[in-house]
Design goal:
By secondary structure, the chain is mainly α. The protein has helices at residues 6-12, 22-31, 36-44, 53-61, and strands spanning 20-21, 49-50. α2 runs antiparallel to α3. It is globular.
Length: 64
């Protein structure tokens, strides 16, 4: 799988009310027209509450 661009990912997550759950992040990104690669990356992050966009980027960066 190709690495997701963190800047593009954050554009798809713009407007999310934090803290947000993994499911909320996925749903928001889908509504914002995120591509399959970005959605796939979000589906692989741990199922937890994310406090900030930086937390999401760190979780996505940890995906092998």
């Amino acid at each position: 799988m190709a690495k997701v661009n963190p800047i593009q990912l954050q554009k798809h997550l713009k407007g999310v009310d934090y803290p947000a759950s993994k499911e909320q992040l996925i749903q928001h990104a889908q509504k914002q027209g995120a591509d399959d690669n970005a959605i796939s990356a979000l589906q692989q992050i741990p199922d937890q509450e994310y406090e900030t966009p930086t937390d999401v980027s760190a979780a996505v960066g940890d995906i092998e």
